[in-house]
Amino acid sequence: MKDMIKLDGKDLAVKLKLNLKEEVNRLKNEVGRVPGLAIILLGDNPASKIYVNSKIKGCNELGFKSFGYFLSEDTSEAKLLELIDELNKDERVDGILVQLPLPKHIDEKKIIDRISLNKDVDGFKPENLGLLMLGNDEAMSPCTPAGIIELLKTYSIDLVGKDVVVVGRSNIVGKPMANIMINKGATVTVCNSKTKNLKKKTVEADIIVMAIGQPKFLTEDMVKEGAIVIDVGINRTHEGLVGDVDYENISKKASYITPVPGGVGPMTVAMLFVNTLKAFKNVNYIK
């Protein structure tokens, strides 16, 4: 078997951002403004704060305009909906991101539904997910699945005819990931941590996407020689950050594998900016 190739999301994300920065500079001269991203955070969850600050920093690096809203955890649902209504009308804002998870007293579905379709840069609205299922290129893809597809494309990994197992069925990773891969010609099986005989399914897969949030859940004996392994998980353990995949041992068998950190994570953030630029171009009728 040929040597394993690491799917380097960190390196690709840097290249994508350089291209975005060049395009934003060009569009600024043409349109007279730059893409604007509004980011809303409720509460002071340390991990969420890190994510939000990294997105604001990314906006500044790329020449985007960022609008940060740091609200207290006890902010009412009505107040949050009021803010989203204001941002929907604000012509400087092309994308609205509400950092999840939200406090328990707020209905996440209601908040996502309130965001204008053309500003749904997370791709979480039912309309966008429906367009995605239909294979419509106008859909705003959720950032993690979009980042994975970009990685596979960059490394010339063709999905046509591949047997794919997606472990995880969330609305933001598992389900959209499965739909995108089906539309690209793969044969897809969607599993979860309670699937019967999971090993029997993963060991036959050409590509495995792990997204269940359980440290090192996928072990070497669950993977066939030469498989392509995509690890979406980010788990904080006493060993530090680890994925849903036993990277050290599976990397000896896999043909391609994403590391954690430095694999899918940086691509997820990069695709948020890609989606924001797409929203900006849509509203300005730029192809």
TrEMBL record:
<dbReference type="GO" id="GO:0004477">
    <property type="term" value="F:methenyltetrahydrofolate cyclohydrolase activity"/>
</dbReference>
<dbReference type="InterPro" id="IPR020631">
    <property type="entry name" value="THF_DH/CycHdrlase_NAD-bd_dom"/>
</dbReference>
<feature type="binding site">
    <location>
        <position position="234"/>
    </location>
    <ligand>
        <name>NADP(+)</name>
    </ligand>
</feature>
<dbReference type="GO" id="GO:0009086">
    <property type="term" value="P:methionine biosynthetic process"/>
</dbReference>
<keyword id="KW-0560">Oxidoreductase</keyword>
<keyword id="KW-0554">One-carbon metabolism</keyword>
<comment type="similarity">
    <text>Belongs to the tetrahydrofolate dehydrogenase/cyclohydrolase family.</text>
</comment>
<dbReference type="InterPro" id="IPR000672">
    <property type="entry name" value="THF_DH/CycHdrlase"/>
</dbReference>
<dbReference type="InterPro" id="IPR020867">
    <property type="entry name" value="THF_DH/CycHdrlase_CS"/>
</dbReference>
<keyword id="KW-0028">Amino-acid biosynthesis</keyword>
<dbReference type="InterPro" id="IPR036291">
    <property type="entry name" value="NAD(P)-bd_dom_sf"/>
</dbReference>
<dbReference type="GO" id="GO:0035999">
    <property type="term" value="P:tetrahydrofolate interconversion"/>
</dbReference>
<dbReference type="InterPro" id="IPR020630">
    <property type="entry name" value="THF_DH/CycHdrlase_cat_dom"/>
</dbReference>
<feature type="domain" description="Tetrahydrofolate dehydrogenase/cyclohydrolase NAD(P)-binding">
    <location>
        <begin position="142"/>
        <end position="282"/>
    </location>
</feature>
<dbReference type="GO" id="GO:0005829">
    <property type="term" value="C:cytosol"/>
</dbReference>
<comment type="pathway">
    <text>One-carbon metabolism; tetrahydrofolate interconversion.</text>
</comment>
<keyword id="KW-0486">Methionine biosynthesis</keyword>
<keyword id="KW-0368">Histidine biosynthesis</keyword>
<protein>
    <recommendedName>
        <fullName>Bifunctional protein FolD</fullName>
        <ecNumber>1.5.1.5</ecNumber>
        <ecNumber>3.5.4.9</ecNumber>
    </recommendedName>
</protein>
<comment type="function">
    <text>Catalyzes the oxidation of 5,10-methylenetetrahydrofolate to 5,10-methenyltetrahydrofolate and then the hydrolysis of 5,10-methenyltetrahydrofolate to 10-formyltetrahydrofolate.</text>
</comment>
<dbReference type="GO" id="GO:0006164">
    <property type="term" value="P:purine nucleotide biosynthetic process"/>
</dbReference>
<dbReference type="GO" id="GO:0000105">
    <property type="term" value="P:L-histidine biosynthetic process"/>
</dbReference>
<keyword id="KW-0658">Purine biosynthesis</keyword>
<dbReference type="GO" id="GO:0004488">
    <property type="term" value="F:methylenetetrahydrofolate dehydrogenase (NADP+) activity"/>
</dbReference>
<dbReference type="InterPro" id="IPR046346">
    <property type="entry name" value="Aminoacid_DH-like_N_sf"/>
</dbReference>
<keyword id="KW-0511">Multifunctional enzyme</keyword>
<feature type="binding site">
    <location>
        <begin position="168"/>
        <end position="170"/>
    </location>
    <ligand>
        <name>NADP(+)</name>
    </ligand>
</feature>
<comment type="subunit">
    <text>Homodimer.</text>
</comment>
<dbReference type="Pfam" id="PF02882">
    <property type="entry name" value="THF_DHG_CYH_C"/>
</dbReference>
<keyword id="KW-0378">Hydrolase</keyword>
<dbReference type="Pfam" id="PF00763">
    <property type="entry name" value="THF_DHG_CYH"/>
</dbReference>
<feature type="domain" description="Tetrahydrofolate dehydrogenase/cyclohydrolase catalytic">
    <location>
        <begin position="7"/>
        <end position="122"/>
    </location>
</feature>
<keyword id="KW-0521">NADP</keyword>
